[in-house]
Write a structure and sequence with these properties.
The complex is a heterodimer. Chain A is mostly helical. Chain A is built from four helices and no strands. In chain A, helix 3 (52-79) packs antiparallel against helix 4 (99-121). Chain B contains three helices and no strands. In chain B, helix 1 (14-44) runs antiparallel to helix 2 and helix 2 (51-85) packs antiparallel against helix 3. Chain B starts with 13 loop residues before the first helix and ends with a helix. Chain B: Its main location: membrane.
Chain lengths: 123, 115
């Protein structure tokens, strides 16, 4: 990549990627909120209700996961001077979040999915 | 780009790796949206369905979310490897499967409300 190209794209790609992460975090909290909520019709016995404690736990889990990832992103964003320069290489960073953060995210989403399935299959 | 490139591997443009990361996130968001749909069908909407149909539709969405969650990091890793070593990326059929499954669920919900 030549220097003139670098100046034409001042950190737009990292910023887009960070926004992508933010959209994901918002959606994570939304799924938690959705699970926390009971049936849309109060007192309705049509749909199965999950124990309130489990619902609160699920919500807490999504918030914790989101907060942890958000903190990681924020620290990395600051360290790489807003995604423009990786202090170790002096080049733009190759990723906004580290691969282990992606692994944590996948594991978390998997755990949520398993919980949703389990609470339906095991009344 | 990084000056320390392992033997037999090419230097990767950061814009491509970031694009790969965004693709991974798009897949994860798809999984989360499917999971939200599963929660809505299973626990929220009092659709006047028999229990079996509701459970089947909800579980189908949840299982699809699980598949996407496993696929996303695998795909990310493969793309990273291809970018470092060169080679061709094959498109998978998962986007098609996801689209058809979501379409099918929409159809079932629509019919379930009409019938």
């Amino acid at each position: 990549m030549n220097p003139s190209e670098e100046r034409r794209d001042p950190g737009l790609q990292p910023e887009r990627t960070l926004l992508s992460w933010q959209r994901m975090l918002i959606l994570l909290a939304l799924v938690g909120l959705l699970y926390l909520r009971g049936p849309l019709e109060p007192g309705s016995t049509v749909v199965p209700e999950v124990a309130p404690l489990l619902r609160v736990g699920f919500m807490g889990f999504t918030l914790l996961l989101g907060a942890g990832l958000g903190l990681h992103l924020w620290l990395r964003w600051r360290r790489t001077s807003h995604g423009v320069r990786d202090p170790r290489t002096g080049q733009p960073p190759l990723s906004v979040a580290s691969p282990w953060a992606m692994a944590v995210l996948c594991t978390g989403v998997m755990a949520m999915t398993v919980t949703v399935v389990a609470t339906v299959l095991v009344p | 780009m990084s000056t320390e490139v392992p033997e037999g591997e090419q230097a990767v443009d950061y814009r491509f790796t970031l694009a790969n990361e965004r693709t991974f996130l798009a897949w994860i968001r798809t999984a989360l949206a499917l999971l939200a749909g599963a929660v809505a069908v299973l626990h929220l909407l009092p659709l006047a369905w028999d229990e079996t149909l509701r459970t089947v539709v909800g579980l189908l969405l949840a299982v699809l979310a699980a598949i996407v969650t496993v696929y996303a990091p695998v795909r990310w890793y493969r793309v990273q490897k291809v970018m470092r070593r060169g080679g061709n990326l094959r498109m998978s059929v998962l986007p098609l499967i996801t689209t058809f499954a979501v379409g099918l669920v929409c159809l079932v919900v629509l019919l379930g409300n009409l019938l």
